Amino acid sequence: IPVDPFDLVIFGGTGDLARRKVIPSIYRRFLAGQVPDGARLIGAARSDLDDDGFRDMIREAMDEFEPDTDRSRLDEFLALTCYIPVDARGDMGWETLKKVVRGDVISAFYFSVGPSLFGDLAEHLHAHEIIDGTSRVIVEKPFGHDLESAKALNAQLRAYFEERQIYRIDHYLGKETVQNLMAVRFANVLFEPLWNSNYVDHIQITVAETIGVEGRGGYYDASGAMRDMIQNHLMQLVCLIAMEPPNRFEADPVRDEKLKVIHALTQPEPHQVVRGQYEAGNGHASYREDVEDDRSRTESYVALRTTIDNWRWAGTPIYMRTGKRLSAKASEIAVYFKAPPHAVFEDEGARRQNVLTIRLQPNEGITLDVTIKEPGPGGMRLADVPLDMTFAEALEEGTEVPEAYERLIMDVMRGNQTLFMRGDEVEAAWAWADPIIASWTARGDMPKPYEPGTAGPSDADTLLRRDGRHWRSIG
Ligand code: BG6
């Protein structure tokens, strides 16, 4: 279903995110017939380009980042684009922008720039009367560096936009499997009765990457894995896995429930958090070489154990880990159910655990490991089989799973905030993460070295071994 005509202004329109993700995603939705002819994409940045220069930049970005995407309608799509040089901190461009943005269609403003410019952009948009109570603003992470800075950013945006106009992107919420997790939990009767500490032994959340800091050393070294991944992406996954069923699948009912989870997350003890930093090896430079600081103490890996202090989850450990330069790219949530209380079968596998695995990438899908009798005459021998709900097979041939940004940008145009973070959620997530980071600083904690291409520092294994458990293998 196409959305209504819109004007989407992308500040930072010549930047990496716009070229790599935002513009190609809108083109793919255009190919899918969701972007109407009356839509317009307005690039805005400081670069001195004209419309044709901007369109050439998009063509080049498509060559570089989307070599396999169908080009047959690219010229038609480019006819919907234009470019205005705008200075976020100065006067350049604002009056032109005012003339170009139409008042009678949906207007959305994508702040694809560093957070230090959010306030300036909002103020100029207001001063030049380009926005009104129906305009929408889209912002990206990092949304602050800690609680205080996140509060300041919220205040800057709320000076000119109502909360219902602000779309804070966490691209993990746009991933297809993440939404499917909610469908599996709340559209079936099978899982919810077991979804609590009586039946769930523990939960593991892994977001492993093989890449290093990839030319973002400046940003990354000032952040580290805790701020870059745990505070936002992994936190959102914890919320969706643990939240109570919302009464409706709508923005505020969903976000109210997520917020309660964040408020109930316990602070890990220092020995329940493991930080790591990759060293040189397996053909890769070390983290310190990558960020060009041979004394950096920033972590490229974090593993931790927490719990959720409420009736449903009391005592169930939640283990999270994320890191760069690990053995494989793999993001998944695994819910380990308890073993049956009594062994009926005389087979050593008889007390195996059911595990529900929600794989975000690669090979997205949901699998439930169940124990059955091994077929054949060999007696009552048991075996685990996966019940596989892999999307590639479930989808009709030729249907593609849309990328996170495609879904999220279209949701902005539809005015649907369900998959966006509310200001209070972001602040609560920082309020949880800040003391953990502060305790590292206070203790002068050094991250543990680990070899590229491995599962991270061995202390992370100890974290689970202490509880008599072990991590799933990555990948
Ligand atoms: C980003 C982080 O938000 O997410 C990156 O800043 C990370 O450091 C990326 O690489 C991972 O996203 P994905 O979708 O590839 O898992």
Automatic annotation (TrEMBL):
Give the similarity note: Belongs to the glucose-6-phosphate dehydrogenase family.
Lineage, top-rank taxon, reads Bacteria
Role: Catalyzes the oxidation of glucose 6-phosphate to 6-phosphogluconolactone.
Which Pfam family name is an example for this entry?
Answer: G6PD_N
Known catalysed reaction(s)? D-glucose 6-phosphate + NADP(+) = 6-phospho-D-glucono-1,5-lactone + NADPH + H(+)
* Any one GO cellular component localisation term in the record: cytosol
Positions contributing to NADP(+) binding: G12, G13, T14, G15, D16, L17, A18, R19, R46, K141
Entry keyword annotation includes NADP = yes
GO terms (BP aspect)? glucose metabolic process; pentose-phosphate shunt, oxidative branch
What positions does the domain Glucose-6-phosphate dehydrogenase C-terminal occupy? Answer: 182-472
Q: In which pathway does it act?
A: Carbohydrate degradation; pentose phosphate pathway; D-ribulose 5-phosphate from D-glucose 6-phosphate (oxidative stage): step 1/3
For binding substrate, which residues are annotated in this chain's numbering? Answer: H171, K175, E209, D228, K324, K329
Enzyme nomenclature, EC number? 1.1.1.49
Q: Which GO terms describe its molecular function?
A: glucose-6-phosphate dehydrogenase activity; NADP binding
Instruction: Give the gene that encodes this protein.
Output: zwf
User: What is the active site of this protein?
Assistant: H233
Q: Which InterPro entries match?
A: G6P_DH, G6P_DH_AS, G6P_DH_C, G6P_DH_NAD-bd, NAD(P)-bd_dom_sf
State the UniProt keywords alphabetically: Carbohydrate metabolism, Glucose metabolism, NADP, Oxidoreductase
| Broad EC category | oxidoreductase
Under what name is this protein listed?
Glucose-6-phosphate 1-dehydrogenase
Q: Does the keyword Zinc apply?
A: no
- Provide the Glucose-6-phosphate dehydrogenase NAD-binding domain boundaries: 9-180
